[in-house]
């Protein structure tokens, strides 16, 4: 009785076969399968095809066909991306993430431009309030005794620094962070 080897396995001492580059039809099916699950940018799909070993000319041809069929559109991707994350991330983080995903600056800018400073400040304030359990300064324990002025100041400034760092990591600009910190009023000395 002979044992079957699994896919891609070779017998001891046998040279492994080089993987065949996918055919045009298999690459097309792969792209359509990816797009049934989620949206991708052209650059993301280009990288995925390159990892699969698809020739660059074939990849460009397939991507051009997807664009022609409007199955891939970086502008609408950027619009949906910004709309879905505008309440939890600032303009800076959204720009950085779109760039990382391969969306050109001139394609992303019209959608990021819709995020006005007032909206960003309101989103930062709402996000800070939502995470109050984490960033609101804790009151000293009742059995700890009276807190002196210096200890109170240090406690409030540490909590404020943590809140500012949180909002900065979320990509909010300094003006939105300042407005949010002032709006919640937790850090008044």
What does this structure look like?
The chain has two domains: 24-112, Arc Repressor Mutant, subunit A (Orthogonal Bundle), CATH 1.10.10; 117-184, no CATH class. Helices cover 62% and strands 0% of the residues. It is an all-alpha fold and 189 residues long. The chain has helices at 24-37, 42-51, 56-68, 74-85, 91-100, 105-112, 117-130, 132-135, 149-169, 174-184. The chain contains ten helices and no strands. It is elongated, with a radius of gyration of 26 Å.
Shape: elongated
Task: Write down the secondary-structure element order.
Answer: HHHHHHHHHH
Distance between the termini: 82 Å
- The low-confidence parts are none
Radius of gyration, CA atoms, in whole angstroms: 26 Å
Tally of structural domains: 2
CATH topology of the largest domain: Arc Repressor Mutant, subunit A
Just name the CATH architecture of the largest domain: Orthogonal Bundle
CATH class of the largest domain reads: Mainly Alpha
Query: How many β-strands, per DSSP?
Result: 0
Beta-strand portion reads under 5%
Tally of separate helices: 10
Q: Helical percent range?
A: 55-70%
Q: Which structural class matches the secondary elements?
A: mainly alpha
Q: What's the multimeric state?
A: single chain
* Largest beta-sheet characterization: none
Mean pLDDT: 88
